[in-house]
TrEMBL record:
The chain crosses the membrane at residues 94-114. This is histidine kinase. Keywords: Kinase, Membrane, Phosphoprotein, Transferase, Transmembrane, Transmembrane helix, Two-component regulatory system. It comes from marine metagenome. GO terms for molecular function: phosphorelay sensor kinase activity. Its EC number is 2.7.13.3. GO terms for cellular component: plasma membrane. CDD domains: HisKA.
Amino acid sequence: SLPLLKRLVNGLLDPVYQIIDASLQNQEYTREDNIITEALQGNPGFDHLYSDDQGEMIVAAHPIIDQNAVIGAVVLKQSTDRILEVRRDALKRIVNFSIISVILFASIILGFSVRLAGRIRRLGAEANNDIDIYGRLRTNKISSETASGDEIGDLARSISGMLTRLHQHNQFLENMPRTLRHEINNPLNALSTSLQNLEGQTDDKAKTKYLDSAKRGVNRIGMIVQNLADAASLEEALIGEEMEVINLHNLIKNYLANCKVVHPKVQFEYQGADLPAYAEICDFRIEQLLDKLVDNAIDFALPKTTVKLGLTASAQTISFFVENQGDPIPELIKDSLFDSMVTARDKNPD
């Protein structure tokens, strides 16, 4: 392609060079006779001449002096065609090289601009197509330009990360009804079971036990509704809770007794310290946490196995644990296990 470009440039510039040569030939040159006459008069000289046969020439004449008298003249002629040709070729090479360089540079810039515009259009088109007409995300990432190492690649990876976070948030919002149902069902089930057991009891001690369990269920439902109503966002529902010093050992024991009532077909067992363990906490949030752990333990436990709850305490820390016997965590969800709304249940996805 480069030789073809050279031939094209030469073809375009040859008429220009011919015009320049013609303008040089039309110049007025000194006649050869005048130079010889001046030399015979004792005045050496030189000048440029032009003839149709030999072209442009340099003519020099010098007088021949003998005994202080001019007896003749020596005339030298040299054609300048070769000199002019070399000069013209050098000029053509410089001009041609400059023009070809400009064309190549402009072509490279144009090609780079076209490629850059195409990459940006592809990235923009994929980003637009990832959102449907209703504003819902169709995917959680983009593939265009994410492997590039330049600024457009950085932009693509930023957009992909943003889509991933938006996708997680949309999933969170889509699963919010099931989440709320799950949060309310636990205390609601406890309330229903306590009321059913309360109906057939005649023992005052048992009645008090079931009545306290029912009251706690009602209070938990009320707190959930109130926190959701007061909070501008779900995260704010966790802020501003009333803290009080509670014996966590008694809380676990009471919670375990309530679990045995709500889940009569599941075997529960307490393990850990039997000593009091006091901490400044919100007991409602602790019970919510235990609800989720126990529900997971029940759903993923093997049939006829025991679910164990326990408490360990040291001088600085207090730890809860829930243990069951079941299948290992699937490899596919290990990296996203603690993301919002992640589940591996085949049934009861709440």
